[in-house]
Specification:
The protein has one domain. Helices cover 71% and strands 2% of the residues. It has a two-stranded antiparallel ribbon. A hairpin with a 3-residue loop joins strand 1 and strand 2. The radius of gyration is 20 Å and the shape is globular. The two termini are 31 Å apart.
């Protein structure tokens, strides 16, 4: 418990203090965001805003986790270390992508194939380590493992799809000031609750590293909140792919290690909505040569409809909060339906 509180406090303070240092460093070196020519007109004023701020977010979270353990004497676990590996590894892919953009002064970084291959390398390494080192439960799971146990090879493919899919989903959502960072605070907070609840009810969930996973989630939530202070509209810095992809990988890795894989789409409901809007737009254009939205992802559609950027952001944050509440309700309902939950509530 001490590690959880220390990790979140340290991560928050470091993100608040370190992000402006990163802003000044990038400003003095002219490292700024390149804006797409086909984007909303209001975004052209953001050209040159420092990017790659996800370095501060990820750095604060990792430092918060480590200092929280060293300060409390808590033991490091393989599962939590593996989540950090996914965050840093996928974040590094995003960093390469960002660096190509700023160094070549263009809005596109790695080509799609190169980015996908690098993401696959990290995701496959995570999946193998999850199965053969961290010994995660390989059953399909919603709030608890089901009776559907996946063979190791199938689980590895499943884990890779979740990691890569989540990383790209958050990346697509990072199109407005503070949208991805604010939404991720809600999602990581959900995993703080999940990890702590699984720790308190070990007899039901049988997840040894549950509390340590809650510590990772708390560090990421706090770091995202601290970064949001500087990233909120009008943003003084963007997180870039290094931040958005790291956030997505972290959420996916937490879902896999806490045995809540099938709950992840509800926890990250905003990210799912944004991703589906892109899928629908692409399919509609290729099949019928028509557009469903004025622009995808969907948050740009609302901008082009005339909604102020801050209105779009806040309303999507509300959706993120509602998604988290729905996910926590579903998680708790599953607990109440369990033998332990029925016994605690007098249900037999």
């Amino acid at each position: 418990m001490v590690a959880l509180l220390m990790a979140s406090a340290v991560a928050l303070l470091l993100a608040l203090a370190f992000t402006p240092v990163v802003i000044r460093y990038f400003q003095t070196r002219g490292i700024g965001q390149q804006i797409r020519d086909d984007g909303p007109q209001g975004h052209f004023t953001k050209a040159g805003t420092p990017t790659m701020g996800g370095i501060a977010l990820v750095g604060a979270a990792v430092a918060g986790y480590v200092i929280g353990h060293l300060g409390s004497g808590a033991a490091f676990t393989s599962a939590a270390s593996l989540v950090l590996f996914a965050i840093v590894g996928i974040g590094a892919v995003g960093l390469v992508d960002d660096w190509i953009k700023v160094s070549r002064q263009r809005s596109l970084g790695l080509n799609a194939r190169a980015k996908f291959v690098l993401q696959l390398v990290v995701a496959i390494a995570f999946a193998f380590l999850a199965v053969y080192w961290a010994k995660v439960n390989t059953s399909l799971s919603f709030a608890r493992p089901t009776l559907v146990s996946l063979p190791n090879a199938v689980y590895i493919v499943w884990a890779v799809l979740i990691i890569v899919g989540a990383a790209n989903a958050v990346n697509l959502t990072d199109g407005l000031d503070g949208l991805a960072a604010g939404s991720s605070v809600f999602a990581f907070a959900a995993f703080v609750f999940i990890g702590f609840w699984e720790f308190r009810h070990f007899g039901l969930y049988h997840l040894g590293p549950a509390l340590d996973l809650a510590v990772v989630a708390a560090a990421m939530a706090a770091a995202a909140a601290g970064f949001l202070w500087w990233n909120a509209a009008p943003a003084r810095i963007f997180m870039g792919d290094v931040g958005s992809q790291a956030i997505g990988a972290g959420l996916a890795a937490l879902a896999l290690t806490t045995n809540t894989q099938l709950l992840l789409p509800i926890v990250g409901g905003v990210f799912v909505i944004v991703t589906m809007s892109v899928v629908v737009q692409v399919l509609a254009f290729r099949l019928f040569n028509r557009r469903v939205f004025r622009m995808a992802p969907i948050h740009h559609h609302f901008e082009l409809m005339g909604w102020p950027e801050t209105t779009v952001i806040v309303r999507f944050w509300i959706l993120a909060g509602l998604s988290t509440a729905l996910a926590m309700g579903a998680f708790y309902a599953d607990f109440l339906a369990s033998p332990v939950g029925r016994k605690l509530t007098g249900g037999g």
